Amino acid sequence: MSFKSFKIGKHTIEKPIIQGGMGVGVSWDQLAGNVSLEGGLGVVSSVGTGVYNKREFPHKVVKNRPLNEDNFYCADALVEIFKNARKICGDRPLAANVLYASSGYDQIVKDACKAGADMIITGAGLPLTMPEATKEYPDVALVPIVSTAKALRILCRRWKKTHKRLPDAVVVEGPLSGGHQGFKYDECFKPENQLEVILPPVIEEAKNWGNIPVIAAGGIWDHNDIQKMLDLGAVAVQMGTRFIGTIECDAHDTFKKIILESKKENIKLFKSPVGYPARGVETNLQKTIEEGKAPKVACISNCVAPCNRGVEAKVVGYCIADRLSDAYDGLEESGLFFTGANGYRLNEIITVKELMEKLMNGEENSE
Asked: Is the pLDDT reported for residue 259 higher than 50?
């Protein structure tokens, strides 16, 4: 069975593969531009754009950290990232991923729309203000990420009542994804919260609101996984970790090396200042946190609202903005390296074009 194109709002995406938004600096212009060029949907991460191109764009940097949220989420850098991605993919659909937990969420969404995003994808909280943030850009498609049918129902009710708007598509993310989860730590391991279980009820709920297209995410690895999700009723899948293993991925070579060398047992869920558990590779950072020797929390960038200006960072023992930025800079000792549960299965670096062909045509060697 061949995979079909699908629509999000006014935009047709040729292949049912959305690349996950990965920050800081894992999915920027090179990765997102090339995924869209190859017929998928490239997604630019809005997180930490202030560190893009050696901190060229923020107005103020302190100790190599963009100062405050308006420099960490740097609008000028986001414009440059989209401009460079467009040089690769032309006018093909291109999305921005904006975490709802981000400090100044509404402003970042406006910045992304202004920069040229065709759609906004938002997780890390239920994005109730998303339509308000995009009201000046009615053609921009809105794609929230949910983990339950109940969350979609609450969102649709609120959006319809307050903004006379519904999502253009919805991503259902199971607890095997990289980075932040939509479940508490213990809930991530429960059978009833796994993607193949939570997907069908969300699809049923989406039908109640005019058949909103549903996209499956979290732990999807190959052609067979994609087929399985489409058979369950999803129109497409979102995949992050597989795209780390590409030449065009914007992550540092050290970041790619750490994922390539990871073992199943050292990919774990960590506490995060965002308030949700986050998945990544256990490295020297976690050891230093346990020993109380991790870099001091100073909260220069004010990256996420739930952290409360460094209060939660001190509780969990690290600043997420600083540690993700270090990973982007290739600092193995102090970086935080996010990956999905299947990251250990990455064993080669190939082009986006080659990966898309494998995903579409099922050229995977079964493990």
From this structure: yes
Return the sign of the alpha-carbon dihedral for residues 282, 283, 289, 292.
positive
Tokens of 320: 């997420």
Give the tens place of pLDDT for each residue, 266-302: 999 999 998 889 999 999 999 999 888 889 999 999 9
Residue 106: is it exposed, middle or buried by C-beta count within 10 angstroms (0-12/13-18/19+)? middle
CB neighbour class for 143 (10 Å; exposed up to 12, middle 13-18, buried from 19): buried
Burial string for 62-78 (b: 16+ CB within 10 Å, else e) reads eeebbbbbbbbbbbbbb
pLDDT for 286-345, tens place per residue? 999 988 888 999 999 999 999 999 999 999 999 999 999 999 999 999 999 999 999 999
CA nearest to 314, candidates 278, 283, 289:
289
- The DSSP H or E segment spanning 252 is none
For residues 177 and 354, give the distance between their C-alpha atoms in angstroms, rounded to a whole number: 22
* Judgement on whether residues 300 and 206 belong to the same structural domain of the protein: no
Range of the domain at 322: 256-338
| 120 membership: H or E segment, kind and range | strand 119-122
* H runs (alpha helix) in 183-297: 195-207, 223-231, 241-244, 253-261, 284-290
Which helix or strand (DSSP H or E) is residue 136 part of? none
| Phi-psi group of 124: left, alpha or beta (phi > 0 → left; psi -120 to 50 → alpha; rest → beta) | left
Residue 352 token pair: 């986006």
88 and 142 assigned to the same domain: yes
Q: Is residue 62 part of a domain?
A: no
